[in-house]
Amino acid sequence: MAERGGLFDDRPVRRILPDPDAVIDRAAWPATVPAVAQLLRDGLELPRGVTFLVGENGSGKSTVIEGIATAYGMPPEGGSTNGSHVTRPSESPLGGWLRIERSLGTPRWGFFLRAETMHGYYTYLESLPQSPDTHLHQLSHGESFNDLLANKLNHPAHVTGFACLDEPEAALSFGSTLKWLAELNEMAARGTQVLCATHSPVLAALPGAHILELGEWGMRETAWEDLEIVMHWRSFLDAPERYFRHLL
After folding, report:
1. Do the bridges between strand 50-55 and strand 210-215 make them parallel or antiparallel, or are there none, so unpaired?
2. Which strands sit side by side in the sheet containing 193-198, from one edge to the other?
3. How far is it, in rounded angstroms, from Cα 70 to Cα 74?
4. Torsion angle of alpha carbons 70, 90, 187, 206, nearest 10°?
5. I want to staple 74 with a disulfide (CB 3.0 to 4.6 A). Which of 16, 31, 69, 233 is the partner?
6. Bridge partners of residue 15, in order along the sequence
7. pLDDT tens for each residue of 106-123
8. What span, in angstroms and rounded, lies between the C-alpha atoms of 142 and 237?
9. Domains delineated in the chain
10. Each residue's pLDDT tens digit, 129-157
11. N-to-C CA span, the chain
12. Mean per-residue pLDDT, 18-26
């Protein structure tokens, strides 16, 4: 393991840095997205455990997580580091503009769960010889995500590594979201490092998680109770009629 400041550093990903050799058009998307511009300017250090990316649609959460996942070596449409699933290339060039600073001796395994492309990923798994995952299309959307959680992301027989999750709550009921909270906590305790883009105030409430809020300012550290989504959900659930007066 890499030694840093007299302590062993066992993080699979220490930092995400801009590649000094990359040719970047900073006047074009995605470099014009404030969160991406900040990542390309300052890089990002990832702590142990779980880091959440939270922000409005268009704030760059999915672009950032896709870029980091592909820079790590994961397929842009989801899957593990030893996968090769591709249907229609649509990823941004961000992954090619980044490099990953790893800790020596840590597992290289990684998994990218991208909610919008999991149907294609399940079809890819069906095509593999002797695949143990041919049942995923037979499950509901949420059940299939829970199956991936149990058998890919948090399986005790698997090595730890780096998990990138792009809006997993898209498929989850409230009860399943609570299940994911518990298992994300287990994953972090076992040494898996997690980066998760989410709109869910429930997931983002995970104790001990690191939260980055994305917006026109770029990326900034924040506390769960200070997140805009937390304040808006509290306000809406307390008195939805206040919103309906303006919306309906």
Report:
1. parallel
2. 79-80, 110-114, 162-166, 193-198, 50-55, 210-215, 218-221
3. 5
4. 120
5. 69
6. 45, 101
7. 888 899 999 888 888 888
8. 24
9. 2-221 (3.40.50.300)
10. 888 888 999 999 899 999 999 888 887 66
11. 58
12. 94
**With contact defined as beta carbons under 8 Å apart, do 168 and 180 qualify?**
yes
Long-range contacts of 169-174 (CB under 8 A, 24+ apart): 169/198, 169/199, 169/200, 169/202, 169/203, 170/115, 170/116, 171/115, 171/118, 171/141, 171/142, 171/144, 171/145, 172/142, 172/145, 172/146, 172/200, 173/142, 174/202
Tokens of 241: 């009629």
Nearest-angstrom CA–CA distance, 47 and 4: 14
| pLDDT class of 89 with cuts at 50, 70, 90 | low
* 35, 219 Cβ separation under 8 angstroms: yes
Model-level pTM?
Answer: 0.91
Is pLDDT of 162 > 90?
yes
Cis peptide before 30 (omega within 30 of 0): yes
DSSP string, 131-189: -TTTTGGGS-HHHHHHHHIIIIIS-TTSPP-EEEEE-GGGG--HHHHHHHHHHHHHHHH
How far apart are the C-alpha atoms of 134 and 208, rounded to whole Å? 36
Percentage helix, strand, coil for the chain under 3-state DSSP, each rounded to 5: 40, 20, 40
Classify 96 in phi/psi space as left (phi over 0), alpha (psi -120 to 50) or beta: alpha
